[in-house]
Amino acid sequence: MSARLSAIAESATLAVDAKAKALKAQGRPVIGFGAGEPDFATPDYIVEAAIAAAKDPVNHRYSPTQGLPVLREAIAAKTLRDGGYDVKAANVLVTNGGKQAVYQGFAAVIDPGDEVLLPAPYWTTYPEAIRLAGGVPVEVFAGPEQGYLVTVEQLEAATTPRTKALLICSPSNPTGAVYSPEALEEIGRWALARGIWVLTDEIYEHLVYDDAPSAAILKVVPELVDTTIVLNGVAKTYAMTGWRVGWMTGPTDVIKAATNLQSHLTSNVCNVAQRAALAAVSGDLSAVEMMRTAFDRRRRTMVEMLGAIDGVEVPIPKGAFYAYPAVHGVLGREIRGVVPTTSAELAALILDAVEVAVVPGEAFGPSGFLRLSYALSDEELVEGVGRMQELLA
């Protein structure tokens, strides 16, 4: 085995989800809070577009690696509509899901030894993608007392002569934190002054609550256009995780380099899935709003129920579909004969004792936290968190 691939850690979120599904298949009543996957079906009009596309022989052949021109045009129009900033279709690269966009974004600008500022808690894939590109992830941790939002002062303190890029994810996976336009502008202007690349993940852009103003960094700091890569996709907004369509936008030379890489890696994204994505990004947002309303209701239920557990602190998530409670007050306490000292041990205990699958904080940064997705039915959510309440009472 190569040292590079041997060093890659398995996706913790997918591992937890796979274990929960395996236990369910054995007939055990496991409730899984692990996967960041909407429980809704993909809207009918998107599915119908895919069915029609599958019957059209034009979609049975190779298409441009960069993506169907009509889809790239639609993504550009959608970016202006939803993000408030301009991007040309020539500066859009359609990828096999958001993860490919993440990897190719880092691969396009990172050289061996370059450091990437990584606000923590972070999505489990980011540090692995950075390392695969030869970079060094530099964690910048913001705890619940900061609402899981890093400051410019923290970023400055972590910056060295090797710093090449900064990753921003707002709304955030795993915490649900949302940067205000003012905070995002401050960070963006700092990065601009420092000459640091910005990679911004906007895949949860439509999932915000409590009137939280979700902003795109290129809208508040348009001068960053030559040093910013935007990552996005249809998975979360349109309940299309299995369709595997994402995209990245950026400067012409970056998109050209990433397209060259993709031409050897995967070539074009499945044409049928691209046609489905075209229907998604070209349509209105009524189906999205229905899902967002349900997520908001579940969010409030989960925060209330988790907050009722002694020793659990739950900052209110303002976006995405995750809660990220701090469980330091539970660790060290005897629970059914076991004394967990880390969130990984606590997550294992919860699964074993009450058959509820959660992801420990070690997957996203420091120990002492759990991530729970509320992208599951109201009934399962109440039952699952209720089991945790009983166990941890």
SSE series: HHEHHEHEHEHEHEHEEHHHEHEEEH
Number of helices: 14
Look at the helices and sheets and give the structural class.
alpha/beta
Largest sheet: 7 strands, mixed
Overall mean confidence score, pLDDT: 95
Strands, total number: 12
Task: List the keywords.
3-stranded antiparallel sheet, 393 residues, 2 domains, Aspartate Aminotransferase, domain 2, alpha/beta, 42% helix, Aspartate Aminotransferase, domain 1, 12 strands
List the helices and strands and how they pair.
Elements: H1 3-6, H2 12-25, E1 31-32, H3 44-55, H4 69-83, E2 92-95, H5 97-109, E3 115-120, H6 125-132, E4 136-141, H7 152-158, E5 163-169, H8 181-194, E6 197-201, H9 217-220, E7 228-233, E8 246-249, H10 252-265, H11 271-282, H12 286-307, E9 322-323, H13 343-354, E10 356-357, E11 359-360, E12 370-373, H14 378-392
Parallel strand pairs: 1-10, 3-4, 3-5, 5-6, 6-7
Antiparallel strand pairs: 2-8, 7-8, 9-12, 11-12
Helix pairs in contact: 3-11, 4-11, 5-6, 5-10, 12-14
